[in-house]
Amino acid sequence: MIRAVDLTLTISGHTILNKVSVDVPKNKVTALIGPNGAGKSTLLHTIARLTKQDSGQVLLDNRSITDFENKELARHMSILRQDSAIGSRLKVRDLVSFGRYPHNQGRHSASDDLVVDKVLVDFELDALAERFLDTLSGGQRQRALLAMNFAQDAEAILLDEPLNNLDLSHARQLMHTVKHYVGRGKTFVVVLHDLNYAARYADHIIAMKQGEVFAAGDTSSIFNEGLLSDLYETPIEIVKVNGLPMALSY
Amino acid sequence: MIASLNVLQPYKCYMAVFLLLLFSFASLFVGVIELTPASLWSDPEAAWLLAASRLPRVLSVLLTGTSLAIAGLVMQVLVQNRFVEPATAGSGQSAVLGIILVTLFIPGASLMTKMGLASVTALLGTGLFLLIVRRLPVQETYLVPLVGIVYGGVVGAVATWLAWQADLIQLIDIWLTGEFSGMIRGRYDFLWIAGALAVFSYFLADQFTIASLGEDQARNLGLNYNVMMAIGLVLVSIVTAVTVVTVGVIPFIGLIVPNIVSRWRGDNLRHSLPLVAYSGAMLTLLCDVVGRVVIFPYEVPVGSVFGVVGAFITLWLLYSSPSAKRA
Amino acid sequence: MIYLNFLKRFRVLTLTVFVITLCLVYLWQGADGSTQFILMFRLPTLIGLIIAAAAIGVSTLLFQTLSGNRILTPSLMGFDSLYVLLQTSMIFFFSTLDYVTLSVHWKFFGELALMTVLSVLLFSTLLVRLQSDFSRMILTGIIFGVLFRSVSGFMTRVMSPNEYAVVQASSYARFSNINEALLGYASVIVIVCLVLVYLISRKLDVMALGRDMAIGLGVNYNMTAFQVLTIIAVMVATATALVGPVVFLGLLITSLVYRVSATQRHASLLPLSVLLGVLVLVGGQVLLERVLQMQVTLSIVIELCGGLVFLYLILRQKR
């Protein structure tokens, strides 16, 4: 589905991405893991064309993303950034509705409203729909941003640490929603810091370290004590709980 | 525009329009030469006065108020800062610089040429300011107006320097204070451009709202962010230039009107833009009447009235919110 | 290289020598008449320039120490518009005749007192109460500036042309014809202020760390801030009465001071502010009047350069 080939990016002498090549399988959840500063967010931004790489290219369905027209790309791929501070005083429903912009250029049809309503319910925002964003808590605002992203209805959805600010219950629910959307044909790339969420919900894992791909493969192949300990340079133990691998570090 | 006030109940909307018409009508009959609705039928002089002086004045007040409020709103959206406005963007000083340059180099230029060239320099000046501001960090709210004032000071110093050489110093004060008393037939035509741009901005309301979410978010939604920035910049610069050249600098309209509407109705421009346009016109109309009545038969320029009224409203806006960043 | 090192190590000394030379050049350059006559004519102006430069430079430095910000100056916070408003309203309420016939000395002390009280009131509210909310503090200062200017504008509208001319004359900076009658008082006031500031220079070093830190280190913050503000107000009022309002001179001086100074200690920053202030003002005057023989006033050039320095500082530090 998404393929990055030899992505390289240097910013003022620091190599942020060094010949990164990854394959994101279609209709799966791919988790992007790795220590701080590994280049995960940058990789995501480069894939979504928010940051321009020095060399290498990104292919979406075997077509270079530079060939896509802006709105066309927005219909195929959406990204949730880590720090989406929104200064505008918008209502939740207004914000989520803007997710439909690549499809309707601001002219809302009944079908757009249906999508918006459904996403609002998926993220338990229907009761908050008429509230202004600046009156919401951090977690509620995060959910509103997620909802806007899902309303965009792109085939590939990139989420940069979507669990930030979410409580345990909403974090779990988000991952279930992600799974649910995979069932409807979507492909996800999610930056996760909690390895156990990756273990439980990801089909495929890309581990990054110091701007390079450290390891990539299906979840069971990455969940390996030696590999993870090397990745984070800290002892990590893997235990099985109810048949699922859990990474422990203490 | 009227139809899109529909976020309010229809009767409120009609009330609002009725009030604006009523005030505009009333303001036609405020002035040194006595003019009453009755005298229009009997006295040909009265009809002439209305057409040549009073009507142009009310029209220019409405056009200026509307377009400056909208320019302020668009500017705030583009630089994601609630405290910018056209009056503190060096536009006034740039226009004065233009006028002085024309006077120096094309002494016999017609009024239209002067205005046209001053609009060009104001456009360049405002554009440069917006480019500078885009390089400032979004979080440091206070920097933008501060930079605006200093920037205006620098351009003003260049203008004063040239004016000194040409003995035109006294011109500067006159051009920098917004005033409607000179608005007679044939003097305010440029303002229609500003009015047209204000209407045009409504068709881009959604795009501007998306741009206000920030560059990355806008690009994620497939908006051509740079094109939007360019359109907004040109729109703001032209409106500012045209109003400065015809009326002068009026502080605070572009600041307080969008801020008040934002508190009340939020920032979805599709809903808030018509209200901003309306409130801008109404507030300017009121301030203009106040300026004409308060030391009758003399007149206080509307720029000074706004300086006082606007300062208090802005202080109120600043202190009634928990923190300046959210004001 | 050795020479440069020498200059660096003894920068205050070098600068002092340079500034004194400059002052002498100012006094004697191009003089072909009797020396005594020229001294009588130029010496008061020179003293006036030195006093104004010292007052503006040091007060800006103090203001930046108090606000913890290196781009703020008293004039950016509305101080100058307050001065112009005061001038305008005096003429407005007393009429020209009273104003002109009023003794120069009484006028000076009246203005000084009023200006000090008003600005201490204004700035103590701004700086002390709003220290935690920087944006709000600066925006308030800016709004006050516009407010004062608009009220002055309001008043000038109702004035007779005569009154207006008096207002105009007192609201522009002038460096070439300094009010000699005030020179004695002004010198004494500014020198006293400078001595007082120098005495508390160690405390100022602690104040520069910010309110919380200063209180933590046992400084009576509010008391000291009040004292420093009063000194700032007195110095700015004196300088303004002497040469009229100058917006960017202080900023120009302090940005040079921070660049030249080897330490952040006020014991070194304070004398440097005085020296560099004189350098800019007297040096600028010599350069413009005598070397380039330009007709433009120094104040315009200073406004221009100071403004450009400000923009440069902001764009460089905030990338």
Characteristics:
heterotrimer, A: 250 residues, alpha/beta, Rossmann fold, 6-stranded mixed β-sheet, 4-stranded antiparallel β-sheet, C: mainly alpha, ABC transporter involved in vitamin B12 uptake, BtuC, 80% helix, 0% strand
Strand order of the largest sheet of chain A: 6-7-8-3-9-10
Task: Name the CATH superfamily classification of chain B.
Answer: ABC transporter involved in vitamin B12 uptake, BtuC
Q: Cα distance, first to last residue of chain A?
A: 37 Å
Relative helix content of chain B: over 70%
In CATH terms, what is the architecture of chain B? Orthogonal Bundle
Seen as an oligomer or otherwise, the chain set is: heterotrimer
How much beta of chain B, percentage-wise? under 5%
The CATH homologous superfamily of chain A is termed P-loop containing nucleotide triphosphate hydrolases
Mean pLDDT of chain B: 83
Instruction: Give the distance, in angstroms, between the N- and C-terminal Cα atoms of chain B.
Output: 27 Å
How many helices of chain B does DSSP assign? 14
Helices and strands of chain B, in order, run as HHHHHHHHHHHHHH
Keywords (chain A): ATP-binding, Cell membrane, Ion transport, Iron, Iron transport, Membrane, Nucleotide-binding, Transport
Family (chain A): Belongs to the ABC transporter superfamily.
InterPro entries (chain A): AAA+_ATPase (IPR003593), ABC_transporter-like_ATP-bd (IPR003439), ABC_transporter-like_CS (IPR017871), P-loop_NTPase (IPR027417), Siderophore_ABC-ATPase (IPR051535)
GO molecular function (chain A): ATP binding; ATP hydrolysis activity
SSE topology sketch:
The complex is a heterotrimer of chains A (250), B (327) and C (319).
Chain A lengths: L1 E10 L2 E11 L4 E5 L6 H8 L7 E6 L2 E2 L5 H7 E4 L11 H7 L2 H4 L5 H13 L15 H14 L4 E5 L7 H16 L3 E5 L3 H7 L2 E6 L2 E7 H4 L2 H8 L4 E5 L2 E5 L2
Parallel strand pairs in A: 3-8, 3-9, 6-7, 7-8
Antiparallel strand pairs in A: 1-2, 1-4, 4-5, 9-10, 11-12
Helix pairs in contact in A: 3-6, 5-6
Chain B lengths: L9 H19 L10 H4 L1 H36 L11 H15 L5 H24 L8 H24 L2 H8 L14 H12 L2 H7 L3 H6 L4 H22 L6 H13 L3 H25 L8 H18 L8
Chain C lengths: L1 H8 L1 H18 L6 H33 L11 H23 L2 H26 L4 H25 L2 H10 L12 H17 L1 H7 L3 H6 L4 H23 L5 H12 L5 H26 L6 H20 L2
Helix pairs in contact in C: 2-3, 2-13, 3-8, 3-11, 3-12, 3-13, 4-5, 4-6, 4-7, 5-11, 8-11, 12-13, 12-14
